[in-house]
Write a structure and sequence with these properties.
alpha+beta; Immunoglobulin-like; 3 domains; 36% strand
Length: 397
């Protein structure tokens, strides 16, 4: 068996993970002696995103058939001293992997012999119908090892231009090394709906992570998040019943279908809807209205197609509370730096006028979200920092 750390058995499924993402082109260089052609398994061509784990590939690379191909001796003569060579490159990295058949272990093809093989045959170092024992050497280069480490434990590949080549050559005393057949696949560039670069969903508004105290005043808030815009997302909003955890409430809500695909809302569920894109305005129908004073939790999920089924990607759970615009809370004690920040925002004359007429700091509203208490003060501090950094520019008014 192959004994190097990460050799061809790792490289072949890695290639499969790459090829399912991006458009590719084949370049063939065949001789009169040998024809070579390999193709991808259908599951790879249909997958949105792929990793070795989702493929069921083990640590050595064995598992389902990912790549299959044919090798044909076009002559009526026996061809001896034949060797495989594999190389994979990324434009931004260089050579990721290079694997060669050891010089002491060539193989032969009988006259007009046709060989059909898969990635698992290469992993076992043998080809069907060929008695010769094959051994390989090489594997991931040092650059390739670093590249794989950056993938964070998966083989989901970043956008780049990738090249994978398979070469069959013959070594003779008369001619030395002579390439008989090769196939080069160049991959690069994404296409709409076919590549999922971001495997996370980041919520933007309304609210913040569970445990935060964020208030909103708009009973029809716009829910927004960061994620692959081409995906279909499921947005679930539930109300705090004072008994169950946010995770339990949302998981229970998932037991029924979204309302726009035939499902119905549970008693504690306010919204369960699917939408394409990265935002959803809280509808005026088909929902349970948000109630002033109530705390809510929400989460966004999406499903992506892998080679063996679907994987669910989930966001964090965020929380917010709906308040009436006229609702008031206790005035918050502030230090001098906060007073200075407010003066910088509204101007010294306006600040003096507000203080003289009995006003105090209650809350700050940003994009329909109301921040009160210490959170509101922190938001003011953030705004001041952005003003000082030049990210926010105040006009003369």
């Amino acid at each position: 068996m192959i004994t190097y750390k990460r050799g061809l058995s790792f490289v072949l499924p890695l290639l499969g993970a790459l090829m399912c993402f991006v458009p590719y082109s084949n370049t063939f260089a065949q001789s009169e002696k040998i024809s070579l052609d390999f193709t991808l398994a259908p599951a790879l061509e249909k997958a949105q995103v792929l990793g070795l784990t989702s493929l069921g590939v083990d640590s050595r690379g064995s598992g389902p058939v990912l790549i299959s191909g044919t090798l044909i001796n076009n002559t009526s003569e026996r061809l001896d001293n034949l060797y495989f060579e594999f190389e994979m490159q990324a434009a931004s990295v260089g050579v990721i992997a290079k694997v060669s058949q050891q010089a002491a272990y060539p193989f032969s093809l009988e006259p007009n012999q046709v060989v059909f093989a898969t990635n698992n045959d290469i992993d076992r170092e043998e080809l069907p119908g060929i008695d010769d024992k094959m051994k390989f050497e090489g594997g991931l280069t040092s650059s390739g090892e670093d590249f794989v480490e950056t993938l964070g434990g998966t083989t989901t590949l970043p956008n780049d231009i990738y090249t994978f080549s398979v070469t069959i050559y013959q070594v003779t005393n008369a001619l030395g090394r002579q390439t008989l057949a090769s196939q080069v696949i160049e991959l690069g560039g994404s296409f709409d709906g076919g590549i999922v670069d971001e495997l996370n969903i980041y919520l933007k508004a309304p609210g913040d992570v569970v445990g935060s105290e964020v208030n909103i005043t708009n009973p029809f808030p716009q829910f927004s998040w960061e994620g692959e815009a081409a995906n279909t997302y499921r947005v679930i909003v539930v109300n705090d019943n004072g008994q169950d955890s946010p995770e339990t409430l949302i998981q229970s809500a998932k037991s029924s279908e979204p309302t726009n695909t035939g499902g119905s809302l549970l008693q504690f569920e306010n919204l369960d809807y699917t939408v394409e894109g990265n935002s959803l305005q809280f509808p005026s129908s088909g929902v349970q209205a948000l109630v002033s004073g109530q705390k809510y939790y929400w989460q966004v999920t999406t499903s992506i197609q892998t080679a063996i089924g679907e994987d669910e990607i989930v966001s964090d759970i965020w929380t917010f509370r709906l308040l009436n615009p006229g609702d008031t809370e206790a005035v918050v004690e502030m230090d001098q730096s906060v007073y200075n920040a407010i003066i910088q925002l509204v101007g010294e004359d306006k600040y003096s006028e507000l203080v003289e007429t009995g006003y105090g700091f209650e809350s700050i509203e940003i994009d329909d979200q109301v921040f009160t208490g210490i959170v509101g003060i922190q938001k003011i501090a953030e705004i001041i920092r952005k003003i000082e950094d030049g990210d926010i520019i105040l006009n003369d008014n």
